[in-house]
């Protein structure tokens, strides 16, 4: 007997959430990358989206999200907007957390960086798909999406 669609999606979100928690709990500090100042970290021919203002001296540079990863986040969030509206803010925030952690793990394991700079989600969505960003904020009843990311 096939499971209803919502049960499959719930199981996937729960698995992603538990996987993210496990990886975050097991993670340690990562050493700074080595290389010359002229080296690039992206794939050849790829572009990256600057996700914040220039770093101030003594402060960590804001996370830079590649355009492909920004589009991926938009594509993941867009179909969930109706679920957020139906489920309400409480359950919707759980879904948002699972979605953001899954996205961060899919895109180069940037989960720890997203946790350190939760506003990267808002900056990325505002630049890549502002309509989806605004609809998610309204559906979840949040001032910004960073406020809905718990861990």
Automatic annotation (TrEMBL):
Entry-linked PROSITE patterns: PROKAR_LIPOPROTEIN
Signal peptide: 1-27
Record keywords, A-Z: Signal
Region (Disordered): 30-61
Comp. bias regions, Low complexity: 45-61
Domain of life: Bacteria
Protein name (Swiss-Prot/TrEMBL): Lipoprotein
């Amino acid at each position: 007997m096939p499971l209803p669609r919502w049960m499959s999606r719930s199981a996937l979100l729960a698995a992603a959430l538990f996987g993210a928690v496990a990886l975050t709990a097991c993670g340690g500090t990562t050493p700074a990358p080595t290389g010359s100042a002229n080296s690039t970290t992206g794939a050849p021919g790829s572009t990256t989206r600057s996700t914040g203002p220039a770093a101030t001296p003594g402060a960590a540079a804001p996370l830079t999200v590649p355009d492909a990863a920004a589009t991926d986040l938009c594509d993941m969030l867009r179909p969930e907007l109706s679920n957020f509206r139906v489920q309400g803010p409480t359950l919707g925030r759980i879904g948002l957390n699972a979605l953001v952690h899954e996205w961060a793990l899919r895109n180069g394991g940037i989960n720890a960086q997203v946790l350190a700079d939760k506003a990267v989600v808002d900056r990325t969505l505002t630049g890549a798909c502002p309509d989806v960003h605004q609809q998610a904020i309204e559906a979840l009843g949040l001032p910004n999406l960073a406020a809905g990311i718990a861990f």
